[in-house]
Amino acid sequence: MEFWFYSDYEDPVHSCPYNSKEGGYQFIYGGPYEADEELLNEFSDIVPEEVIEELAKELQDECPEWSGDSSVSPDDYTEWDYLPSVELPKHLQTFKDNISNVRALLNVAVSPAQQRHFRGMLYVSVIIAMEAYLLDNFLSCLDADKAVFRKFVETRNIS
Length: 159
Prior knowledge:
Blueprint: H1 2-8, E1 9-10, E2 18-19, E3 24-25, H2 35-43, H3 49-62, E4 67-68, H4 91-105, H5 112-144, H6 146-155
Helix pairs in contact: 2-3, 4-5, 5-6
């Protein structure tokens, strides 16, 4: 929850203009936001309220009013951000396709001088395919079971 909060909100001292005539910070990136309201809106159906309140108090002690994150604009979002979770089960086929492509590339004739570099690039491609598969599998597990997602959020310690 803390990671999520810091990815969407920031202390206005870092990005918002201050104007004492206008009453303080000018929340040009949205806000002011209160940590407890934002956390409850996002997590109330999956995390116990007392856990949310504990984090909200820590955040409130750090900053009473939060600004939207100045580094994120609506144009920064990609199509991936809006893909429905039903797309995730295709991850195994994607992995198989990637490995198939790497195997096909093993048959490409490469000069001996570039062969080591070429094989290294193929190795990196396999690692990336594996990491993508594992991430997609993990996201599928979280998406399929709210209890698993809740346990993940409650036990995750991001410092």
